[in-house]
Amino acid sequence: MGRSYGSTSLSRPLAEEPISVLHVDDEPDFAETAADFFEQRQARIDITAVGSATEGLEYLSEADVDCIVSDYRMAGMDGLEFLEAVREEYPDLPYILLTGKGNEDVASAAISKGVTEYLQKKPGADQFSVLANRIENVVDQTRAERRLEESQRRFQTLLDNVPGIVYRGHNDRGWPMRFLSDDCVELTGYEPSALVDGDVSYGRDIIHEDDRDRVWEVVQDALSSHDPFRIEYRIRTADGTEKWVREQGQGVFEDGDVVALEGFITDVTARKQSQRQREFQSSLLEAKMEATIDGLLVIDEDRTVASYNDQFVEMWEVPDEVIETKSDEALLDWAVDNKLAEPEDFLTLVEDLYDHPDRTSRDEVRLTDGRVFDRYSAPVVGDDGTNYGRLWVFRDITERTEYERELERQEFLFSRVQEIASIGIWEYDPQSGELIWSDGIRRIHGVDDDYEPTLAEGIDFYHPDDRDEIEATVTRAIEECEGFNRELRIVRPDGDVRNVRTWGEVSTDEHGATEVIRGVFQDITDRKEREEQLQTYEYVFESALSALAIAGLDGELRSVNAAFCEMWGYEDCEDLLSQSVTDFWTEPEAAANVVDAIRETGRWEGGLQGVREDGTTFDTYCSASTVTDDDGDPIALMSSFVDVTERNRHEQKLAEEREKYATLVEQSHDGIAIIQDGAFVFVNSRLSDIVGYEESDLLGMPIIDLITPKSRELVQKRHEQRLDPGADDPPSQYTLTFETADGRERVGEVSAAVIQYEGAPAVLTSVRDVTERQQYEDELERVNEELEVLNRVVRHDIRNDMTVILGWAEMLGEHVDDDGKERLETILTGGKHVVELTEIARDYVETLTGDGAVDVKPVQLDPMLRNEIMLRREAYPDADIVVEEPIPDVGVQANEMLSSVFRNLLNNAVQHNDKDRPVVEVTIRERADEVEVTVADNGPGVPESQRETIFGKGEMGLDSGGTGIGLYLVHTLVKQYGGDVRVEDNDPEGAAFTVTLPRAG
């Protein structure tokens, strides 16, 4: 038996697997030209060239190849002799013979010696395109046959199935399940019972919301024609992970109606990727084409048939009158009317290729008679680059397609049996020491899918008490060719002990020696536990939280548990027995149909509306099945019920909330966007309004394109910092400038947060248009700056001038009579008041032009208040200003402008007093967290109607002794400190102003 050659991957499409080729030719120029062509245009084909058949045999003894391409005429051993030598060791290795000239004797001899293909050398690069096509076809055909043989060998050990979930369910949009295999947890994160009991809906909770309608439509289309269905779609697992799955199944029909769906769901996430079709550049060989198994057709640039071979006519069975028209359109019309199973797709590709003459194409064409053709097309390009038309190559691959389908079917069955029966297969080669486990065995042992143990490691999984027995059993199998069947225990890596049954059979070579041991491994833990489960059944039935009921095949209740009685509002469960199961529903007729369905199919799941003893109704989800005896004959009906009234209400509410959320996003006054990889993947209409672009134009646009140059660096820095898990979080809000579609600038206040969007990191951003507000703030800042300058300049000039006036007025006191002194005193008082007003104006302006962030700190009350009282006494010698002693040594939350508060309150108490001698009393009261300072006077008081407005800007006038600005300043400063100011009546007369300040810690 010859050594194996080449390699195949059952999980990889044939057309994508690399091909290794040994090229034997004693013409170096031809070999070098061929190597250059394949390197530049056929990345799939890896070619190794040698100069003689002897070198070729040496290379084959050291390396595996998928195909041999050999020249016929060579020094020493020619191509036919080389073929004969190859066939002795490698009877199935594809072999393509090249000759300089056609020769029927050579072709006949080559065919008799087992050549795979016979090809004549032609001048020009076109021959290499044909050669590449031949290599791919013969290798793909051989691989398909080899895969089928391998699958059939494995299938003799155990039937095949696909890894994933085996299910049976209902044809309903929620896809309620009757049965799910244990791999449900691995694929979806949910226990099978959660879906079977209805706690989780496969259709609503697991299938991706964007794929649900498509899945429903594909399945319904297949069911309507009683065909199997196959579809790939996305799911969301229990932890929110998005996966791609491939589902294939079919309907279960009774009397033409769909009573159930059954099939398999497999994880294809890792394999889900776009598959690129390989382009082939081909050119016309010559007008006369050699005999080949391929049908060849050449169409020139005018859509006229330039050339074809007999094989093309025979394959397509084209009538003479059609082919003789030389019209490509006539050929297409005839094929559409008489041969093509999918004419629209055929014509679409043809027209697309004629519209793009530089393209190549390869696909499969199905005929109405069941045959399948491999179709390859490439432009015919001359050495000068001129395009002369298009070459079409057709090969009948019906047999290969059938191989691949049979291979797929057997692999499907193999995986399915492993999954359903909790079994797997193993194979051990004593010569190489290689131990092979199937996925089913890995699942039983609780190890990763890529775990590959040695024999010793496999034996180490067995329980210490069983390890000697399995070692002896394996030894006897190897040495004495003795099969075995044992029930033993294994210990999983997590410590879980499982009961297993292992079968083994020995395959021997021609000398009777053990060649390989293969067998089946089954987890029988469940069977071992079944007796214990049966013993606890009655307890579980009675104490179950779900409502359970058992009825006879005639539909009369035999037993119910307490939860059933409670759900239907019965106090005594005995009252329910002997009643029909159809008596507890709003639609007894529908319930009767359910009973019939259970009798016919053995299972039923779905929703029904129950009626309690008091007449109220509720929604339930029912899972029912037949109870069978040891012979498998039905003896009773058993059902479980879950009250899903609240769940249905919750789902309705959830749907409404989702709709509200979508409306909220679209109606938001802020622009909302999701940015991924620096570009917009979602925008709402408000963002479109702000920047002046259509929503469709924004999708896919980099955000940087909307940002003015001065803001781009900030945006890029914040974006990178936000997505970097090791960096500090940037500010969640900041301001930047956008450039609109018409070139204007808009200022936006941006908030951003990192989210997951469609399985990848993204940034959720809201944009508020603050252009007008920014313009207002800029203008306000300018006015404040001007006001501060004006205040500083005017106050400085007034104080200087008043200093001069007051100085001269004091000097005039010695030069005026008594009447003049009284008037001079009035001048001095007024002048001092003007100076005092400049101080108030300074404090007022500083308060107005501050940045809003007041610097508040602990301030000692005693020295500040005492100093202001002393200054007011000096300023108003005719007033009595009395303070309650002692002033407490306490700190308050304020700043250095607190003195302005007390100065203005004291000034107000004196200046607005109508008594000849004003009396002002200052009292201080301490509390746990605040301090109150009251300034009371004996003046006219403040009318109650003015107490709400006295501290406002509206009271700043010159209609009284003061300006009113002082009290507004008092109110403003105290509020900045976190305190309060109020005015009340003084007893027996006057007004009392009370300032409350937070106490310093």
TrEMBL record:
<keyword id="KW-0418">Kinase</keyword>
<dbReference type="InterPro" id="IPR013655">
    <property type="entry name" value="PAS_fold_3"/>
</dbReference>
<dbReference type="InterPro" id="IPR035965">
    <property type="entry name" value="PAS-like_dom_sf"/>
</dbReference>
<dbReference type="InterPro" id="IPR001789">
    <property type="entry name" value="Sig_transdc_resp-reg_receiver"/>
</dbReference>
<dbReference type="Pfam" id="PF00072">
    <property type="entry name" value="Response_reg"/>
</dbReference>
<feature type="domain" description="PAC">
    <location>
        <begin position="229"/>
        <end position="280"/>
    </location>
</feature>
<dbReference type="GO" id="GO:0000155">
    <property type="term" value="F:phosphorelay sensor kinase activity"/>
</dbReference>
<dbReference type="Pfam" id="PF02518">
    <property type="entry name" value="HATPase_c"/>
</dbReference>
<keyword id="KW-0597">Phosphoprotein</keyword>
<dbReference type="InterPro" id="IPR036890">
    <property type="entry name" value="HATPase_C_sf"/>
</dbReference>
<feature type="domain" description="PAC">
    <location>
        <begin position="359"/>
        <end position="409"/>
    </location>
</feature>
<keyword id="KW-0808">Transferase</keyword>
<dbReference type="Pfam" id="PF13426">
    <property type="entry name" value="PAS_9"/>
</dbReference>
<dbReference type="Pfam" id="PF00989">
    <property type="entry name" value="PAS"/>
</dbReference>
<dbReference type="GO" id="GO:0006355">
    <property type="term" value="P:regulation of DNA-templated transcription"/>
</dbReference>
<dbReference type="InterPro" id="IPR000700">
    <property type="entry name" value="PAS-assoc_C"/>
</dbReference>
<dbReference type="InterPro" id="IPR003661">
    <property type="entry name" value="HisK_dim/P_dom"/>
</dbReference>
<feature type="modified residue" description="4-aspartylphosphate">
    <location>
        <position position="71"/>
    </location>
</feature>
<dbReference type="InterPro" id="IPR011006">
    <property type="entry name" value="CheY-like_superfamily"/>
</dbReference>
<feature type="domain" description="Response regulatory">
    <location>
        <begin position="20"/>
        <end position="136"/>
    </location>
</feature>
<dbReference type="InterPro" id="IPR003594">
    <property type="entry name" value="HATPase_dom"/>
</dbReference>
<dbReference type="InterPro" id="IPR000014">
    <property type="entry name" value="PAS"/>
</dbReference>
<dbReference type="InterPro" id="IPR013767">
    <property type="entry name" value="PAS_fold"/>
</dbReference>
<dbReference type="Pfam" id="PF12860">
    <property type="entry name" value="PAS_7"/>
</dbReference>
<dbReference type="Pfam" id="PF08447">
    <property type="entry name" value="PAS_3"/>
</dbReference>
<dbReference type="InterPro" id="IPR036097">
    <property type="entry name" value="HisK_dim/P_sf"/>
</dbReference>
<dbReference type="InterPro" id="IPR004358">
    <property type="entry name" value="Sig_transdc_His_kin-like_C"/>
</dbReference>
<feature type="domain" description="PAC">
    <location>
        <begin position="732"/>
        <end position="782"/>
    </location>
</feature>
<feature type="domain" description="Histidine kinase">
    <location>
        <begin position="793"/>
        <end position="1001"/>
    </location>
</feature>
<protein>
    <recommendedName>
        <fullName>histidine kinase</fullName>
        <ecNumber>2.7.13.3</ecNumber>
    </recommendedName>
</protein>
<dbReference type="InterPro" id="IPR005467">
    <property type="entry name" value="His_kinase_dom"/>
</dbReference>
<feature type="domain" description="PAC">
    <location>
        <begin position="604"/>
        <end position="656"/>
    </location>
</feature>
<dbReference type="InterPro" id="IPR052162">
    <property type="entry name" value="Sensor_kinase/Photoreceptor"/>
</dbReference>
<dbReference type="Pfam" id="PF00512">
    <property type="entry name" value="HisKA"/>
</dbReference>
<feature type="domain" description="PAS">
    <location>
        <begin position="677"/>
        <end position="726"/>
    </location>
</feature>
<feature type="domain" description="PAC">
    <location>
        <begin position="484"/>
        <end position="536"/>
    </location>
</feature>
<dbReference type="InterPro" id="IPR001610">
    <property type="entry name" value="PAC"/>
</dbReference>
<feature type="domain" description="PAS">
    <location>
        <begin position="151"/>
        <end position="226"/>
    </location>
</feature>
